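Response to reviewer comment R2.3. The reviewers asked that we include at least one raw input/output pair. We reproduce the pair for RNA polymerase sigma factor here without editing.
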Amino acid sequence: MDSNTEVLEGWRSGLCGWDALVERYSRLVWSVPRSFHLSHADAADVYQCTWLCLAEHLTRIRKPEHLARWLVRTATRQSITVLRTRGREVLLDLWEPESTAPTPDEVALTNERQRRLWAALTTLNERCQRLLRIAAHSPELSYAQVADALGMKVGSVGSTRSRCLAELRRKLEDWR
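Raw output as returned:
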């Protein structure tokens, strides 16, 4: 089965289509909660909730060609819900040997760089933010998969990404 339509119809008629959907979009769905910097456990919860929502709403999907976009939006909503309910917790690994732990100066420098990067990213338009998050957290995705997830033309993914990265670099240089 190739197209989303065939896979969805196969699943609805009792054929094995679910595994094909999960295999096709697993990395994309997983990349969304990771782009929100959720813990592994929280990202796994979002991942599972996204697939559960799809199972619950599968019969209502009218445009199978937009399934990737639907999955990204659902995972995004789930991730935001997790952030709101659990907040940004920083868990300390008490089993980590002290010798490998970064120094306070290293932590402060890293945190400042990350703060600047994320602050600059949030000043970009939503399309650039989503594109760069997917590119950062799922570099193995093809341009076709990224285009499908973002509702873009395949031919515009590379040039749009280049423009977004250039804009991000300019903003970071302005903040120095």
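Residues 1-87 form a domain with the Rna Polymerase Sigma Factor; Chain: A fold (CATH 1.10.1740.10). The radius of gyration is 19 Å. Further pairs are available on request from the corresponding author.
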